[in-house]
Amino acid sequence: MRTLLLNPYIHDFTAFDLWLRPIGLLYIAAVLKKYTDCEIHWIDVLDRFQDLKGSETKSSEDGRGKFHQEIIEKPEIYKQIPRHYSRYGMPVSLFNEKLDQLPDLDFIFITSLMTYWFDGIIFSIEHLRERFPKAKIILGGILPTLLSRKIKKNIRVDDIIEGYGEGQVLEYLKKNQVHCNDHPDFSKIDNIPFPAYEYLSSQRILPLLTSRGCPYQCTYCATNLLNPGFFERSSPNIIREINTLVEKYSPEHMVIFDDAFLVNQQNRFQRVFSEIKNISGIKFHTPNGLHAREIKPETADLLFKSGFKTIRLSFESIKAEILKRSSDKVNIEQMSRAIQNLENAGYRRGEIEVYLLFGINGQTRADLHDTLLFMGDLGVIPRLSYFSPVPGTIDYLNLQQQGILSRDLNLYETNKTYFVYQKSGLTESDIHHIKELTNQIVYSNREISPDWNGGNWPD
């Protein structure tokens, strides 16, 4: 059976390639490759390292950079937002060329990420339907997992997959008379084959997942809705994958995708990286944010010696109410101690980045201002993390009850830029002030940065 795996377009006000890799789809590709006889085809419209025929964008040394973008018309609800609205991904003409080069398809599996990127998914599906009218289109990932009934009503797909897809993809194919080989229980995370990294156009920068889920219960986060528990890979399994990747691809960078990388660190982080310290000179990055309370002196020392270059910490705010919504996972003292431990290990404070939650309900300009000044005094680099109300979370439900969000789900309202500009209670002047202050602190604490372009930082 001929099968296409697709990572679709993004429609949004902003999108930046902070090592965005479709690791879930790569796991699905590995399962199909190992346990079926399917003829597998792959298109990732967000892969900036493929030949885009003159539309390539520049990357920093570690692979971050801007997607190719095309400004498109804003949906009506966004007309008052003072930002361009764009389609991000390869030129549509190239996408059509790639589709024309494919044989007739039997199945198309599409992944999804942000709930408010659904327009990009619909746009991608329209092109697929036109080219492959007989193919069955199946949508998986975050969108159908959170909103299965909404998706079935509003997106023209033949089926959806909710939750982890490795086993469900095989069950779906079996129901459609496709032979699948016997496979182990994929609920045991070590049984899942390593992602099929060969489908990436470049293996210089590779993603790595050592656990799924998070033990914390933050009121604004959907991790616990997407993951039925906190599942950790064994350290021998992780080490085997890293060694396999080094032997096969000689990557220069590896990006940790975990939501709780340092939780239970003695079982994974410490065991793995004590054994493979600075293996082959690989540089490691943690864009999802580390829990500051887990940065003990020995942790910081191992991070530094193992070659972790991008250190991002989750802080959110100095306001007690917002910290409580973050499950009290960090406080001011713990953040200050974590920064000191990282500095003692060898990091410069101007290398350490800290997320500040921006636009969550109840937050004021003064709260944000004071938190930024605290970060400035610490000497770290603040990163504004725009709040997006994720359907099903406690914060989302509270916003509905307060009348801030519509009672009937409107996915456009979950867009982070829309919410900050229209629903957060912050004025356009407040937003401008906070962004300018952020840039000033960044420039002060790190005079030269690979992302600094003299204007606003990528959101």
Brief descriptors of the model:
459 residues, alpha/beta, Rossmann fold, TIM Barrel, 2 domains, six-stranded parallel beta sheet, five-stranded parallel beta sheet, 16 helices, 18 strands, disordered C terminus
What's the layout of helices and strands?
Layout: E1 2-7, E2 10-12, E3 16-17, H1 23-35, E4 39-44, E5 65-66, E6 69-72, E7 85-88, H2 92-100, E8 107-110, H3 118-131, E9 136-139, H4 142-146, H5 148-154, E10 159-160, H6 166-175, E11 205-208, E12 211-212, H7 223-226, E13 231-232, H8 235-249, E14 253-256, H9 269-275, E15 283-291, H10 297-305, E16 308-316, H11 320-325, H12 332-345, E17 352-358, H13 365-378, E18 381-386, H14 394-401, H15 416-422, H16 428-445
Parallel strand pairs: 1-4, 1-8, 8-9, 9-10, 11-14, 14-15, 15-16, 16-17, 17-18
Antiparallel strand pairs: 2-7, 3-5, 6-7, 12-13
Task: Describe the overall structure.
Residues 448-459 have low confidence and may be disordered. By secondary structure, the chain is an alpha/beta fold. The chain is globular. The protein has helices spanning 23-35, 92-100, 118-131, 142-146, 148-154, 166-175, 223-226, 235-249, 269-275, 297-305, 320-325, 332-345, 365-378, 394-401, 416-422, 428-445; strands at 2-7, 10-12, 16-17, 39-44, 65-66, 69-72, 85-88, 107-110, 136-139, 159-160, 205-208, 211-212, 231-232, 253-256, 283-291, 308-316, 352-358, 381-386. The protein has 2 domains: 2-175, Rossmann fold (3-Layer(aba) Sandwich); 203-445, Aldolase class I (TIM Barrel, Alpha-Beta Barrel).
- Mean pLDDT rating: 91
Can you give the helix content as a percent range? 25-40%
Overall body shape: globular
CATH architecture of the largest domain: Alpha-Beta Barrel
The largest sheet, given as strand count, sense and whether it forms a barrel, is: 6 strands, parallel
Q: Runs with pLDDT <50, length 5+?
A: 448-459
Instruction: Identify the strand order in the major beta sheet.
Output: 11-14-15-16-17-18
N- to C-terminal separation?
41 Å
**Strands, count:** 18
Quick one: CATH class of the largest domain? Alpha Beta
Approximately how much beta-strand content do the residues carry? 15-25%
Treating each run of at least 4 consecutive H or I residues as one helix, how many helices? 16
- Return the CATH topology of the largest domain: TIM Barrel
Radius of gyration: 22 Å
* The CATH homology group name of the largest domain: Aldolase class I
